[in-house]
Design a protein that fits this description.
This protein is an alpha/beta fold. It contains 10 helices and 12 strands. It has one domain (31-344): TIM Barrel. Bound molecules: S-adenosylmethionine. S-adenosylmethionine (SAM) binds next to strand 3 and helix 10.
Length: 346
């Protein structure tokens, strides 16, 4: 899929380093999710508060050079995939330049992005030219009013135009992520699925997780099983399969079409035993687990000009600090995580 070459290099062209980040449970760490900013141009109800979110001062963000330096060391330890996320990654100026730098690291196989798509129309071509080949786009509704309720912004049209622009630019692997929430956008499950199937786009339903300060309650979460049952009213779904053992998603072909619908049952069947990820926050902290507050400061080392051996040590420490499984906040209890999802990089 990659290796067609972009201005930024040919991901996957060079031999990858053997995987050296193996955690205490024997899990091979091959993915680094990089949050390039904690800022976002939307205020999705499950992610950020309507008002009062506090963001990092610009000087606290890792520079592209710092991100690329750490990424190169990580790739030398066997990391293959460098996913860019946020916040909203496309609000960071000149993101295509970072994509190009990351794609040029020998041994990198994949530099996908997770985005809300609002700014995609203006950036799709540059991102593709820089070497990105895969996009995950959050889309919680396909009707304007429902979209605005979920994101608190009248931006559905911009996202749809962005998706079309990405396809024109050459992106063939585009996945849509929906978080179905009872009483909020559950009426969008079937319309969005019909639209995605008609468009030949791969839609996945993510179970709503308690995070940061969102108003999660168990009743609001629609399980993968429940959504599968509802989809069964409109589609015949084939058996579930995972794209790879470490993929959190279970995908089903919509029989009679080339389209897929999938589920990420993060609450009812967490994929911790197969987790292959580390996260890098926008202010340069390695987070071994999305759901735990343990963080390892790499910003200080990067800014002090630490040698690669020091950065390797911090990456190894992060891998060794991965908990066997996550612990979620109990309903009614204060959230486990100090940060919003936007600040960790979902
Ligand atoms: N701004 C980008 C976007 O909207 O895709 C990237 C950042 S966003 C935090 C990354 C992913 O996290 C999105 O797919 C979003 O739907 C998911 N997410 C955020 N809060 C969540 C929650 N409480 N439960 C489940 N997924 C969540």
């Amino acid at each position: 899929m990659l290796g067609e070459g972009g201005a930024g290099g040919s991901p996957g062209a060079s031999a990858a380093a053997p995987v050296q980040l193996i955690d205490g449970q024997g899990r091979a760490i091959t993915d680094l999710r990089i949050s390039v900013t904690d800022r976002c141009n939307l205020r999705c109800v499950y992610c950020l508060p309507a008002r009062g979110a506090r963001f990092l001062a610009p000087g606290r963000l890792l520079s592209f050079g710092e991100i690329a330096r750490l990424a190169a060391v990580a790739v030398g330890l066997g990391i293959r995939k460098l996913r860019l996320t946020g916040g909203e990654p496309l609000v960071r100026a000149d993101l295509d330049r970072l994509v190009a730098r990351l794609c040029a690291i020998p041994g990198v196989a994949d530099v996908p992005l997770t985005t809300n798509g609002v700014l995609l129309a203006g950036q799709a071509e540059a991102l593709y030219a820089a070497g990105a080949r895969r996009l995950n786009i959050s889309l919680d509704a396909v009707e304007a009013g429902a979209f605005q309720r979920m994101t608190r912004a009248p931006a559905l049209r911009a996202v749809l135009v962005g998706i079309a622009a990405a396809r024109r630019a050459g992106f063939r692997d585009i996945k849509l992520n929906m978080i179905p929430i009872r009483g909020q956008n559950e009426d969008q499950i079937l319309p969005l699925a019909r639209w995605a199937v008609d468009e030949g786009l791969h839609l996945r339903f993510i179970e709503y997780m308690p995070f940061g300060a969102n108003p999660w309650s168990p009743e609001q979460m629609l399980s993968a099983k429940e959504v599968h049952r509802r989809l069964g009213e409109a589609f015949s779904l084939g058996p579930g399969r995972r794209a790879s053992p470490s993929s959190p998603a279970v995908d089903h072909q919509v029989l009679g079409t080339g389209a897929y619908l999938g589920f990420i049952p993060s609450m009812t069947a967490p994929f911790c035993p197969n987790c292959s990820r580390l996260r890098l926050t926008a202010d340069g902290r390695l987070r071994p687990c999305l759901h735990a507050d343990t963080e390892i400061d790499v910003a200080a080392a990067l800014r002090a000009g630490a040698p690669p051996e020091r950065l390797r040590g911090l990456l190894r420490l992060a891998a060794a600090s991965k908990p066997p499984g996550r612990v979620l906040a109990a309903p009614g209890k204060p959230p486990q995580q100090r940060r919003f999802m936007a600040s960790v990089g979902g």
